[in-house]
Amino acid sequence: MKQLITLLFCIAAMNSMQSQSVVGKWKTIDDATGEAKSIVEVFSKSGKIYAKVVDVLDPAVKYNLCKQCPGDDKNRPILGLNIIKGLSKDGAEYNSGEILDPKNGKLYKCALSLESKDKLKVRGYIGFSLIGRTQYWYRVN
């Protein structure tokens, strides 16, 4: 009985830790309209955090290309595009990487932090974190 309780406690602790991670699928919201825009999958690779667009919710733009994106991302489909690249953990925040805005092709410095287990604060900025904009993404179960 004692082993069963210990096992259940360990499973609950692992689930709690996993839900406290930025890793997972997140719904993005359009700043202007308040409408759900896309589903982005945040993942870890070689100790860094990345994110790619796994679904575009508006059928009219689902297969659009990133025409203004720089470098290798130019003219690639937004669906499947890596939009967050190379963030490192810094306390409760992930930063020191970039976020791409596929709408205008611009790269910004990026910081991610959990507001709650199901709400992710995404900050894109130029230079200092004071000059930028914040979006909130919501976990998809």
TrEMBL record:
UniProt-recorded name of the protein: DUF2147 domain-containing protein
Gene3D superfamilies, alphabetized: 2.40.128.520
PANTHER family: BLL5882 PROTEIN, BLR1215 PROTEIN
Ranges of residues in domain DUF2147: 24-139
Pfam families according to UniProt: DUF2147 (PF09917)
Superkingdom assignment: Bacteria
Protein species of origin: Flavobacterium ammoniigenes
